[in-house]
Amino acid sequence: ALGLTPYDVYKHTGFLKHLMIRTGRNVSTGAPEVMVNFVTSCYKPELLVPLVDRITKISEVVSVVNNVNTSVGNTSVGEQEYTLYGKPTITEMLRGLTFQISANSFFQTNTKQADVLYKLIGDSAGLKGDGSEIVLDLFCGTGTIGLTLARSAKHVYGYEVVPEAIADAQKNAQLNGISNATFVQGDLNKINETFGKEFPKPDIIISDPNRPGMHMKLIKWLLEVKAPRIVYVSCNPATCARDLDYLCHGVEEKGLRGCYELKRVIPVDMFPHTPHIECVCLLELC
Ligand SMILES: C[S@@+](CC[C@H](N)C(=O)[O-])C[C@H]1O[C@@H](n2cnc3c(N)ncnc32)[C@H](O)[C@@H]1O
């Protein structure tokens, strides 16, 4: 009756594609903050008004956004985003820092375990803590890993493809009074010879790709730049094993020689009651 027809991926008809709900915490009160994200096939906010009116009676709902995705595909990221109620972001706290998160920015779903994960990443990074080292945070999302390391580093450089995540990372640096972090939007699958010219040689590289792992171009660059230590974080054991093998043993058909030794792999249960596992892997230059 409201005209909220579900989107049919075969016929490419209908309105509602996805409903995403994210939770965070109010930084001052610690109270839950909820973001509701309607992903729709076109922009018809009038259809959502009755629903938004009801949802916003729930006091924890502080953000309602509408991502409009007109493509025939079924992804949850819109080409346009509209704020229908409240603010366009929610906040979350991790390892003593505050993070602002937009609907389309990656943020670990399990905050409690993310705290454990980031502590292990910090331990593996093994920064001296004297502020002398350069950290490169690849696939940085909203800047979480780099920002938790920034206080012990000389400078953190973060790279990420999603523009909204980079905007969040920059705001998150400001929000936490961190001035030694630079976040750059870029596609790490499409790097060319200029990549790496805009920052000093890293002492520690963190790489936290999504499930497909790292592109061969990035593997090649890592084998050329030879940072003393790489912390590889992965939620896909298959691509993780492949990329670790490339970094340690090289890629014969591409003429690349491996130059790292795998020191340890620590699994972290980020997704309880599922077969998925996250791994923190420490590689050192041979
Ligand atoms: C597993 S998440 C990690 C995010 C962040 N390190 C964290 O802990 O919150 C992977 C990130 O890689 C980004 N990403 C995916 N493909 C990319 C690419 N080709 N180039 C740069 N970033 C990419 C995603 O947008 C996402 O933010």
TrEMBL record:
<feature type="binding site">
    <location>
        <position position="208"/>
    </location>
    <ligand>
        <name>S-adenosyl-L-methionine</name>
    </ligand>
</feature>
<feature type="binding site">
    <location>
        <position position="108"/>
    </location>
    <ligand>
        <name>S-adenosyl-L-methionine</name>
    </ligand>
</feature>
<dbReference type="InterPro" id="IPR029063">
    <property type="entry name" value="SAM-dependent_MTases_sf"/>
</dbReference>
<dbReference type="InterPro" id="IPR030391">
    <property type="entry name" value="MeTrfase_TrmA_CS"/>
</dbReference>
<feature type="binding site">
    <location>
        <position position="160"/>
    </location>
    <ligand>
        <name>S-adenosyl-L-methionine</name>
    </ligand>
</feature>
<dbReference type="GO" id="GO:0008757">
    <property type="term" value="F:S-adenosylmethionine-dependent methyltransferase activity"/>
</dbReference>
<dbReference type="GO" id="GO:0001510">
    <property type="term" value="P:RNA methylation"/>
</dbReference>
<feature type="active site" description="Nucleophile">
    <location>
        <position position="235"/>
    </location>
</feature>
<protein>
    <recommendedName>
        <fullName>TRAM domain-containing protein</fullName>
    </recommendedName>
</protein>
<keyword id="KW-0489">Methyltransferase</keyword>
<dbReference type="Pfam" id="PF05958">
    <property type="entry name" value="tRNA_U5-meth_tr"/>
</dbReference>
<feature type="binding site">
    <location>
        <position position="139"/>
    </location>
    <ligand>
        <name>S-adenosyl-L-methionine</name>
    </ligand>
</feature>
<keyword id="KW-0949">S-adenosyl-L-methionine</keyword>
<dbReference type="GO" id="GO:0008173">
    <property type="term" value="F:RNA methyltransferase activity"/>
</dbReference>
<dbReference type="InterPro" id="IPR010280">
    <property type="entry name" value="U5_MeTrfase_fam"/>
</dbReference>
<dbReference type="GO" id="GO:0006396">
    <property type="term" value="P:RNA processing"/>
</dbReference>
<comment type="similarity">
    <text>Belongs to the class I-like SAM-binding methyltransferase superfamily. RNA M5U methyltransferase family.</text>
</comment>
<keyword id="KW-0808">Transferase</keyword>
